[in-house]
């Protein structure tokens, strides 16, 4: 699953630089996560870094983008091989 930022976001700017996949960006009103780039930090870290730094706990799993650990790892591999 990718993650999603809810409307409780206070635009504190701490999550965006923590994302190793550049999946977090400023939307119209709050930060948003591109589900095509979010791997929940699989391949990079043991836990999603954005969730670790969020002061208001507004980054849950996105029920509309369900993915297995294997699918997240495949996405990580695609993203990192494209970056080379």
Automatic annotation (TrEMBL):
InterPro entries: 4Fe4S_Fe-S-bd, 4Fe4S_Fe_S_CS, PSI_iron-sulfur_center, YfhL-like. GO terms for cellular component: cytoplasm. It comes from the Bacteria. SUPFAM superfamilies: 4Fe-4S ferredoxins. GO terms for molecular function: 4 iron, 4 sulfur cluster binding; metal ion binding. Keywords: 4Fe-4S, Electron transport, Iron, Iron-sulfur, Metal-binding, Repeat, Transport. It holds the Pfam family Fer4_7. Residues 1-29, 31-64 form the 4Fe-4S ferredoxin-type domain. Coiled coil: none annotated. This is YfhL family 4Fe-4S dicluster ferredoxin. It comes from Spongiibacter pelagi. The lineage of its organism: Bacteria, Pseudomonadati, Pseudomonadota, Gammaproteobacteria, Cellvibrionales.
